Amino acid sequence: MDIPVPTLTWKTCPGDASRTAHGQTVECATVDLPLDYDDPTGATTPVSVDRVPASGRRIGSLFVNPGGPGGSARDFARYAGYLIGPGIRRHFDVIGVDPRGIGAPPYALCRYPSEDAPPGLAVPYPVTQHQAGRQIRADRILDEDCASGRNAIVDHMSTADYVRDIDVVRQAVGDEQLSYYGISYGSMVGQTYAAMFPDRVRAIIVDGVLDPIEWTAGRDPSVPSTYRLGSGHGAHEALVSALRECDRVGRDRCSIAGHAERIWQRTYRLARHGRLRVDGHRLVTQDLVSTALGALYQAPAIKRQLVRFLHDVAEQRRHRTARASRALASDWADLVRVRDRQQAAGPYGYAPPGRALTNRVTDVGFESVVCSDAVNPTDPWAWQRASRTADTAQPWFGRLWTWASSLCARWPGAGGDDAYRGPWRTTTSTPLLVVGNTHDPATPIQGARTATRQFAGSVLLTLDGWGHGALNTSACVRTWMAAYLIDQELPPAGTVCRPYRPLFP
C-alpha cells in the first residue's frame, strides 16, 4: 500500500560523526514511517538515515547495508563508498537507512520480570544432551518473557518491513529506481527488494549471498533455517581448503605446512578430551571452533592468528617450555580479539553495531529478523537433531551455526505476518550483480549460485579466495562493481577474480 512520501530534513551530523575518515561531510535525518504497513495511517516508528553526498557529478543515491541482521547501515555508509569501487563516492550520495529497531530507539528489546537473566550456557553452543536441555530451557524463558515484555517494534522487523522503509526513503530522496549494495544479510535485503519491487531496480549488488529460499520458506522447513543455509559446510570447506593451501605453499610461507590439517585435527581432539590448555585455562571444542570461525571471516587472520595459534599448540606440546606457553597464550588472545570483533557484527554481518544492555534487558534484533523471515520447526529439540546430522554433514562448525536460530522454535513475535517468503524467480528492470566467494565460511557460494538463477539475466561474479564476502578484497571485483553501479555494465558470465594477495604471501 502506498503512503505519502515524507520530506527529509538533512542536518550535518553532530560531533565526530559529521565527517568521514576521508573528510566528506555526513548528513543525518530521521523520518517517521508506519510501524505496520498494513495500517499506514496508524502508529509510526522513527527510522534514522545518514547520507554522504556525492563529491562530483551525481548519478543518484546508493543505498547500502552491512548485514547482521543488526549492523548499522548508517555507520557503513560512512566508508562503504570507498570500499565498493572507484568513482562511487564521486558519483553517488551513499545512504544508510538503519534497520528499524536497530539503529535508534525504540530498540528490539525484551525485558525480564526479575532481576536475573535466564540461565545460559558457559559455552557458545550446546554439544551434549544436557547442554542442549539447558539451552532449550533458557530459550523458553526468554520467549515467554518476550511474549509479554517486548517492545512493539519486535513484531515489525521482517526484512520486508525494512525493504518498505528503504523504498519510502528512495522516493523521498527523488530517485526513480533503487541503486543498492548489500553484503551478507544485506544480500537478503537486496534480493527481497528485487522480488517485491522488480520494476524499481536500477542496480543491485548482493555480495556474500544467502540462499533466499533457505533463509525464508526453506526446501525442508522441518529443519532449522540456520542449518539448511549450509554455513556449517561453508566454514568446514573454508578451513580445510586453507589448510591444504598451507601444505601446498610450503613452510617458507606457512609455518605448519606439511601437517596443517593433521595439526588442526590433533588440536580439536585435545579440546574434545579436555587436554587443550592455554594460560592455565581448559579450552573446550566450542571455544576452539567459535574462535577459529572468527578468523575464517577475514583472509589475513587465517595466517596471522589461526595458523600461528595452531603452530604454537604443536610447539607447546613438543617442547612444554614457559616460552612456548607464553607464545600460545598471546596468540590465543589475538585470536579471541578477532572472534569478538566478528561476533559483534552478527553471524551474517560485516560491521559491528555495538550496544551494551543490562542483565534485565536483552537485545533481540537478530532474532526479530531471523524468526520473522524464516519458517522454522516448532519443536525445540529439532535443533539438537539437526546438530547431530551436522556433525557428519557439516563437521566442526555445523552445531554452532545450527543453534544460532534456536530461539525461533517458540518465538512469540508476529513479524512473520508481514514477511516475504517468495516467489523469488522474477525479471527485474535491471539484472542483478551477484558476487560470491569460493571459500566463504558464512555464506557458501551455493547461495550466490541459487540467487543468480532466481533473477533473470543476473550475472555471478566469483572471487576465488577466502574470507566472508568480496568487499575491498580484489581490484577486479571493485572494478566490476563500479562499472555496474555507474554504467550498469555487467561482467561477462563466468568471470572469476583473484584477491589482492594470496592467502599465504
UniProtKB/TrEMBL annotation:
Residues 395-497 form the Peptidase S33 tripeptidyl aminopeptidase-like C-terminal domain. The keyword Hydrolase applies. The keyword Hydrolase applies. Pfam families: Abhydrolase_1 (PF00561), Abhydrolase_4 (PF08386). Keywords: Hydrolase. Residues 62-219 form the AB hydrolase-1 domain. One of its GO terms (molecular function) is hydrolase activity. Belongs to the peptidase S33 family. This is Alpha/beta hydrolase. The lineage of its organism: Bacteria, Bacillati, Actinomycetota, Actinomycetes, Propionibacteriales.
